[in-house]
Amino acid sequence: MNQQLTGYAPTPVTARMENHGSTMLRVAMATGQDLYARTGSMVAYEGFIQYEPNPPAVRQIASQWITGEGTPIMKCSGDGLLYLADYGADVVVVNLNNDSLSVNGTNVLAFDGHLTWGVERVKGLAKFTGQGLWNVCISGTGWVAITSRGTPIVVDCGRGEDETYVDPDALVAWSPNLKVKGKRSFKASSLIGRGSGEAYQMAFSGQGIVVVQPSEDSTDRLRVRN
C-alpha cells in the first residue's frame, strides 16, 4: 500500500512557501518567522507550531473593515511544516520583492508576519457602490499565498494601452499602483455578473498585473446600496 501512495508524499522543502498540488500550501516554519493565515485553514502540520486566533495586531487593523468583509486571521509560530488549504480552492504563491499586492480579503490565505499590511479602500469606486470596496494591501519582501476558485488568469495590464475590465466578483488581486475606476453597463447586465439590472466592471490601467479567477465569488462584493 505504501508504494501505491508514494506519489502523494511531500517533496523536499525548497522554499518558505510552495504548493503541494494545486490546492494545498506548504509553509516551512521556523522560530522568529511568524505567519498570518486564514483562521481554520490548517489541515496538517509537523513539528511544534502554535496558533493564536485574532491576535491584538490583527484586531486593530480589522477594526477598519467596516463593510463586513473581514477576514478572520490567526498568527502561527514555531518550527516545522504547516499545511494550509481553503475548501479545495487553487493556491497561488507570490514572492514579493520590495513590492505590493492588493488582495480581495476572501482570497487571502497566508502571508509572512513581517510584511506590512492593512485594509484599504479602493479609490474611485464609492460613487458606484455606495460604501466602496475594501481590500487587503500587503507590501514588503516576503511570501504571500492567495486562493482562486479555479485556475486563475494573470493579466499584464502594461502590455497595451487599452484598459483591462474585470467583473469585481471574479477579481482576486492586483498591483496597487494600477489606476482603478468603475464602469456601469446597462446593455451587458444580462451577460456579465449574476444578477439582473445594472452591471459593474472595474477598469484597470497602467503598469501592473490583475489576477482573475474563473468563478464569481458568492459574497457580492459590488452591488448598489440604497
From TrEMBL:
PANTHER family: ALTERED INHERITANCE OF MITOCHONDRIA PROTEIN 24, MITOCHONDRIAL
Organism: Streptomyces pulveraceus
InterPro entries noted in UniProt: AIM24, AIM24_sf, Trp_RNA-bd_attenuator-like_dom
Protein name: AIM24 family protein
